[in-house]
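Archive transcription. Copying these from loose printouts into the bound notebook so they stop getting lost. Printout 1 of 2:
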Amino acid sequence: MLLRTAVLMFSMVCGIFIFSVCLKQISSQARTTFMDLKVIDNSSQNRVKQMNIPYLLHYPKPVTFNRNECAHNPVLFFAILSNQRSGSGWFETLLNSHINVSSNGEIFSVRERRQNASSILHTLDRVYNLDWLSSASKNECSSATGLKWMLNQGLMEHHKEVAEYFKRRNVSVIFLFRRNLLRRMVSVLANSYDRYAKLLNGTHKSHVHSAEEADILSKYKPIINSTSLLDDLKDMEMRAAKALEYFNSTRHMILYYEDLMRNHTKLKDVQEFLGLPEMELTSRQVKIHRGPLSDHIQNWDDVNKTLTGTVYESFLEADY
């Protein structure tokens, strides 16, 4: 009888001990989960502190969908200002490979959207309200949203209204230019030719994703007007300088295609500028015109003679 009582008491003590251990584990696990949730919940606050300029971050309320649990995640507004054939398409695919970025493409290539200042600002409102739906849209959980805008798509004509809008809505500007304007000229002429020639099985492509396609397109060698070449290069320089002048009062950074090609750490600077968590950015696009320019210009001797001894002589050299 005494032995049976002792065994019973021992079983009760063991049961209480095991229960208390399990209770502590459950409590500890619940606390860990709560702490994890707190970390997630504080991520937007941390981003505000990280940016150190909280007024740049916005909390859009789109009318076309509900941001749901991401409603408290701040969004930075940006615009990529560039010229055709300056690497902006490649650069935008790099940005859009980031899980938190929505760059909505060359929206103002459609003439109706840039008819006047009013139509431009209305379109911008839709973009920054997250109501512009495109294949690049991350919708609810975007941390940075914007567009790509070419200088010749109504931007320069309505620069006063756009600059005022950018400042009022705290839009961050990324200027993307090309140092070697002669290479840009080759790319522009070759792309214009392919719009009609359609060298890739009867299809025009401004950007390609394979070396084979790039080789086919690069076989066309444009003839460059050497008589107007110096004036043409000067005009391109002046246009970029004007854009910098018009939007100098905005928060901005200046990028060059050649620097991005040589040094991919520049992409870290871009992500920091946009207040993004750093990720490895990737693109499937393949460069079309590789190697020395002498391989891509039909009247190379004329061009070489025209630029030698001028401020543009460096354009003749391989730059990356």
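Printout 2 of 2:
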Amino acid sequence: MKVLLLAGYETTSISLTWALIELSRNPDIQTKLRNELVEHSSDPTYDQLSNGLPYLDAVVHEIFRMHAPVRESIRIASEDDVIPLSEPVRTKSGQLIENLPIARGTTLSVPFTAVNLSSDIWGEDAKVFKPSRWLEDDRKNGIPAKARDVQGHRHLLTFSDGPRTCLGKNFAIAEFKAVLSVLVKNFVFEPRDGTETKIEMARGFLPRPRVAGEEGCKVPLRVKPYVE
């Protein structure tokens, strides 16, 4: 039960919190998302949530890219292996290597957040909240070529990949979109102390946000009903 609560509840709630933070910081993006949702007057079906609301999809995946609810994954090599490197790396001894030998029993960390936010992979604006990158076809303004080489869901490591990928990712994405669409369609969100409010990461197993200098994992927002 604890595993189900952690995987199915905590991760989605944290992602929603980060989404509201980013949308409150970027009112133009929040307005554009709301306009798309309002134009789609009825409650969206599962298929519409998956494929019929492109800007909602872009916002959600940009949140997953910038604020992965699980920051890394730990693995232990079950057998000896050799990992090819995309680019040569120079070791402390000065040796230039093109692959990395891994011995059986070695503990490995897969840094989801580091890869998702790498400027070498995602470009100079990697740390900028920019949903439009998911809607552009060209590789200059859209998904860079190096990011397209990442073999994860939509070029992200947020849900891991391979045989240990997140089994519930499709449900999680649909749930995230459904809840976020209801909130944004009906309410306007603003930072309590203005768009420059500094948000920091609380230390813990999951990346919970909080207002810098304040106690507890909480991010107060000003919320008012949306009136057309």
